[in-house]
From TrEMBL:
Keywords: Cytoplasm, DNA damage, DNA repair, DNA replication, DNA-binding, DNA-directed DNA polymerase, Magnesium, Metal-binding, Mutator protein, Nucleotidyltransferase, Transferase. Belongs to the DNA polymerase type-Y family. The gene is dinB. It is found in: Cytoplasm. This is DNA polymerase IV. It comes from the Bacteria. Its main location: cytoplasm. Mg(2+) binds at D13, D128. GO terms for cellular component: cytosol. Its EC number is 2.7.7.7. The active site is at E129. The lineage of its organism: Bacteria, Pseudomonadati, Pseudomonadota, Betaproteobacteria, Burkholderiales. Monomer. GO terms for molecular function: damaged DNA binding; DNA-directed DNA polymerase activity; magnesium ion binding.
Length: 386
């Protein structure tokens, strides 16, 4: 039998993420119970003397839910997804802040970029967590864990918790064991002592329904799942899920860390219904060109990128294809700027022949937050009326 070499997988999760980002700009709230989840009417007001006036949970009226809370608020029993009115009854003095997703996304990119400078194998798991494959890194596990935490702190001012284990399943469970600011390392040998006493629902994949079904069978902990009669599990959960339960309860998981690559470029192209000529079909071409650039700008906006290089692709009626590109001093993402740059490229291609396809591409991408992208005024190009 061949056994795969042991792996070192990390799961990193930011501590009270949205709330911690808010505390960076309202440091006077540090140490207090704070809840994020309000709307714009809960925006703090700066008073004449420079101090800020914050909303309190007790004044909340409405049907909103808690997005997240600081650990001080959690001490009162206030957690994510709890109704705000219920939270107000538990922690009336807690401060309430509106959500600001743009900021959270910006910090999300920052911590991921910081980690990527140390470990290139990063799997994105949403706004505040990632998996890393540390197997090939020369540092010993604890040193590396400390390095990662320091890099995140340095880049964002925020703390995170990291679990390091032989696989994703265990790493994910571990990152939660010593929150906040935790670093938890477990091996297969630690499974009976550290993992078996945990509630079965701590396993990613045992949802509320399965947990309730297990509880009905008297199975509450991971250890009880591991020691349960396989036949009983099969009877209630089917062969596949029962087999999966058996494996995960023993801490086994073979899933690979799937590295997510930033796209190199984003493009849009269109083949015309009939071949068009730069001069005779100028109006139609102009409209198509503008629409392409608008769609591309929408794609960039949705994927949150801006780019410095704009490329143009043209296919002639005889199927010859030409491309041109231009690199700008700063990244752009808006339709007008893309159209202007692509228009510049257009000046550099011969336009005597009819065309069958037009494409526009933006590359040399950077996250939109890092681009400081500006709107550049439109300049007329060859397809436009003068
Ligand atoms: P989590 O990592 O689950 O929670 P957290 O970072 O706030 O706290 P912890 O220290 O326990 O990790 O979620 C990350 C962010 O996602 C959280 O700050 C807010 C958001 N979120 C929601 O919007 N709704 C939810 O139900 C949960 C759980 C999180
Ligand atoms: Mg978190
Ligand atoms: Mg998380």
């Amino acid at each position: 039998m061949t056994t795969a070499p042991p792996r070192r997988i990390a799961h990193l999760d930011m501590d009270a993420f949205f709330a911690s980002v808010e505390l960076l700009r309202y440091p006077e709230l540090r140490g207090h119970p704070v809840v994020v989840g309000g709307g714009s009417r809960h925006q703090p007001v700066t008073l004449a003397d420079g101090t800020r006036k914050f909303s309190r949970l007790r004044d909340y009226v409405g049907r909103g839910v808690v997005t997240t809370s600081t650990y001080e608020a959690r001490a009162f029993g206030v957690f994510s997804a709890m109704g705000m009115m219920k939270a107000a009854a538990l922690a009336p003095d807690a401060f309430l802040l509106p959500t600001d997703f743009d900021s959270y996304r910006r910090y999300s990119r920052l911590f991921k970029a910081a980690v990527a400078t140390i470990v290139p194998h990063v799997e994105d798991r949403g706004v505040d967590e990632i998996y890393l494959d540390l197997t090939d890194h020369p540092d010993d596990t604890r040193t590396l864990g400390m390095k990662l935490k320091a890099a995140v702190k340095e880049a964002t001012g925020l703390t995170c918790s990291i679990g390091i284990a032989p696989n994703k399943l265990l790493a994910k469970i571990c990152s939660d064991l010593e929150k906040p600011d935790g670093l938890t390392i477990v091996s297969y040998d630690d499974v009976p002592v550290r993992i078996w006493p945990l509630a079965a629902k701590k396993i990613n994949g045992i949802g509320p329904k399965a947990a309730a079904k297990l509880a009905a069978l008297g199975i509450e902990t991971v250890g009880q799942v591991a020691l349960a009669d396989p036949k009983l599990l099969q009877e209630h959960f089917g062969l596949n899920y029962a087999e999966w339960l058996r494996r995960v309860s023993h801490g086994h998981d073979e899933r690979a860390v799937v590295t997510t690559h930033e796209p190199k470029g984003i493009s849009r192209e269109t083949t015309f219904e009939r071949d068009l000529h730069a001069k005779h079909d100028r109006e139609a071409l102009s409209e198509i060109f503008t629409r392409l650039c608008t769609r591309l700008a929408d794609d960039l906006e949705r994927k949150r990128y801006a780019g410095r290089t704009v490329g143009l692709k043209l296919r002639y009626a005889d199927f010859r294809t030409v491309t041109r590109d231009v690199t700008l001093p700063a990244p752009i993402c808006d339709a007008a700027a893309i159209r202007r740059a692509a228009g510049e490229c257009l000046r550099r291609v011969p336009l005597e022949q009819r065309m069958r396809l037009l494409g526009v591409r933006v590359s040399a991408l950077v996250p939109i937050e890092e681009a400081g992208a500006r709107v550049v005024p439109v300049q007329r190009d060859l397809f436009e009326e003068s």
